[in-house]
Structure formats: structure tokens, C-alpha cells
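Record 1 of the preview.
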Amino acid sequence: MTKHTIAKHIAFLLIFIFIFTACVYNTSTPTPEPMGIAKRPSATSTAPSPTETSEPTHTPRPTSDDPNDTPQPSYTPTYTPTPSPTMTPSPTSKPVLDPTLDATVAIGFLREGEPTPAVPIPTAVPTFAVPPGTTNVLLLGSDDPIGNNNPGRTDTMLIVTINPDGPTASMISLPRDLFVYIPGSTMNRLNTAMSHGETVGYPGGGIGMLKQTILYNFGIPIHYYAQVDFQGFQEIVDAMGGVELAVSCQRRDWRLISPELDVEDPDNWEVFTLEPGIHQMDGDLALWYARSRLMDPLSDWGRGRRQQQLLRAMFNQGVDLGLITELPTLWRTYQNTIETDMDFGKILQLATMAPAVRDNGIKNLYLAGKTEPFVTPGGAAVQVPKWEGSGMMEETFQQLFRPPALNRASRPPITVEIINATSNPDMALLAADNLAWFGFAPIIGQTPSQTAEFTQISYYKPNFKESYDWLIAWILDKNASEIELASDENYEYDYQVVLGEDYNPCRPQLYAPQATN
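->
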């Protein structure tokens, strides 16, 4: 079997066990992005080619943090639910009980000999009640290759919650610099929990300590974990034929001039600019997009969102390729590629839900704005969680167990026809991707012969009840009061959006209003 084929099979295996491995190839703070609502648009990308920008006057320095990020391809509907594939019967997964705090470790006190932390140790937060059948999977990524027995620092952490009712899924990224209580030890960065667990010989090892740390500080019982290293990420993306991403905001950051060059040599770096548009990314560009953060005004928060976007793009692309039926063979061949405590029955169960999850909706959650920046006495910049209060972490983690507000398992899709009256042919695809990210079902209509100066939104219903006008207005950077109430019983969609030259697809999605249910 060729190296290309092996990488391709590994990529599909990782996608279809519902572990979204794309997002774990980062050593930065995660935060999440869009979901495909229908079939991938067939339009040809007209995005400007990435441009190399002249270097600033200061000496280039390579990015020190390992990457990751998240965008996702835009999907232009015709809404067509994807039937779940028929598969050969396979092993039944063994039931797993919700984990509980280990009383011997999660004591809420300092380990003997530890200095008093500058931030008081918090009490354990109440454990959330997990709906029956719901599965919480912790996705991990680090610099260290799988199997080298060195836990290192876990730089990418993402919780994916799969609810069988629907089914639907939610995901939330856990920034590595969250300053939390490591049970039985002291306050420290979240990404040190695994190495601490290995150091003190915790019975569950590093993974067990990390699960306890998440349960203590966030109340989320972790049923399973899956860990990969990011070695070979570029090869996986390339084996998939690249990944299509809708880039709504210009990205500019240092990039290695050529992948084979020495990262330690400053002369091998240049400032690279990626313009907004639809881009077919190879592995090298996808990795840069995922890890870029130094010139991002949202820093690690923005990088985390791009990681979720990339993750969702690869997930949708994998579903479109329809290779779930290959999973049993792939798992037998490549199960040593990842480290996980899931048995194959559970992996298969989650994988077969993937098409329905894509159709029903994925909720992306963010912790941006829910922490307090803090510098430790040792000079480390960390983020202290803000648990209680309106819109803070407690409310955000509760949303993990609720289906997306616009999910199609419980309500018809809210359809949006997009008319591109701009001079940029990619604008319709960028708008479709932004709308799909929040759960709308976009359909790209025929391009008019003339451009329009201003964007217009029309709602084709008798009234605005259940319209989500406030959300679509935010996505398109308009006031809800500007949405016109139209009347045409023959019009087949809920909304019509005519994009004008004033449309700007770059929106601060980390701070978007939340549609709740």
C-alpha cells in the first residue's frame, strides 16, 4: 500500500470515528466555526491568490506555539438530508458510567510543599447532569508522537458532545492557558494536568488526571478521549485532495518560506497574506492557517475558532465522500495510529451518526470573553475562568447538552436565498458559509445583471415570529429593523438576501449573539 493511500485511509478513519482530528493539530488556544447545511457548491473559486507581503522592519521570528485552527468550507444548499449508511453488524459498545470526582485527589487543597497560589483555589463546580445516551469525547493534540510515553503538554483540547436525540453535536475548545486547579496539586495551566498526572503516578495516568481536572473545574464528565500528534497533518490534508475553506477575514502572519526549511533560522520566514475568498488549501497552507495567531487581533481565541472551522470542513468533506462503510477495515488496519479508550463498537456507533449530525446541526461554543487575563508571579500570562454570571462559563458549558437552536431534527430548516449583487463572485459563498455556521440553510440564487450598493434582507412570512431576524441581521452586519417583511406565497424560501457592495463577510463571530433553546 502506498504512503499516499495510507495517509488517506488514516484521514478518513479519524474523521469517521467522529473525532474530528483536524482540530487537534494545534498547540494553541482553541475556540471554534461553520457547518455545512447542504451540498458543497460547485462554483469555481475566484479568490485572489495569496500574496506575499513585504516584511516589516523588525527581524522575523518564527511562531513558537504549535498550531491549529479551525475554518470550514462553505456549503450551498439545496437541502437534502443524508441517509445514514447501512453497515455490517459490529461489536456492541460497552456502556460507560458518567465519571465522578476522585475523593483521594480532588480535595481542593494544596499539595504539601506547594507555595500558596496568587489565585485562590476554587471549590469544585457541580457536575452537570448528562442526558441519557449522550457521549462526551475529549480530543487531544500535542507535540509528542503517539507511543513515546512522554505526555508533554497537551496544547490542544476540545470537547465534542454527541447527543443521540437528533442526533446533534456540540463542541467547545479549552484554551491551554486556562488557569485552573490541578486536583491534589495547585493552580496551574490546564495543559499541565497530563504531565502532572504522570509525574505523581496518578492511577489513571496523565489522561485520568486531565479528566479529573476538567470535571473539577468545569463539571463535564469525560466518557472517552482520543489523542493524536500533529506529525503528518499536512500529509493527511494532501491525501484528502486538500480542504476547501471559506476565508472571511484577511489573515496575515509569519510563514516558513518553504516547508523543508529550518524553522530555527529567522531568514527562512516571511510575512504571508491570505486574502478573503474560497481557498482550496493544501496541507502546508492549512497548517499555517490553523496555527497562525501572532498578527490576529483575537490571538489564541481567533486561532481556536479557525481550528474548529478547519475541523468542520474536514468532517463535512469526509461525509460527502461517503466512506463510512470502510471504517471496519480501516480501524483494523490503523487502530494504532491514535490513542483512545473507545472500543470499536462505540467508534462505529458515533461514525454512523456523522451524516445525520451534519444535517441536523453542530453547535460551536466559545470561551472568549469568559475569562480574566492574569499574570502569575512567575510572569506567565494565563486566563482565569469566570464561572458565574450572565453569559459566563457556567451558561456556556450548559449549552453543550442542548441541541443547536436551529437544528433540523426538531424544526424545518430556515432557508435563505442569497443573491450576489456584488462585483466579487466569492461573496455569495462567503455569506453562505457564515449563515451555515449559525444553522441557517443557504441557497445561492442566480446572479443579477447589475450590482447593488446596499445589502437588503427580506423575510417571506406573515410576521417575524420565530424568524431569528436578530441573528441573521448580525451575521450580515445589518440592523434587524432594516429587514423587510415581504408577502409572496409562491416564494419557496424563508429569507432572501441581496448582497450589495457594502457587504463585509468578516464578522467577530466569537462574540456573536447566541441562539438558545
